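cron nightly-structures :: item 1 of 1
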Amino acid sequence: MNLRVFKKLPMGQQAHCLTCHGDFLAERREDSFRLHLYALGDFYAEVWRVLDEDPILFIHLFQQPAGLTEYLKKIQLPEVF
């Protein structure tokens, strides 16, 4: 699925598509929100929820790698000797 087609879906179908067909990549917190990052087709999607609540507030879509910066900051690589 590509970004253009995905954007036309209602949010409930978008969420279902991400959980069934997307690749879950990471989770992070920002203020009082919990974000799940998925890759699907030619784009990434962040599913935003309030901490400790289930309903989705919104789904942020992006294609540029710059959107991954906050997730990459958490990756710890082992030291190489």
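cron nightly-structures :: done
The mean pLDDT is 93.
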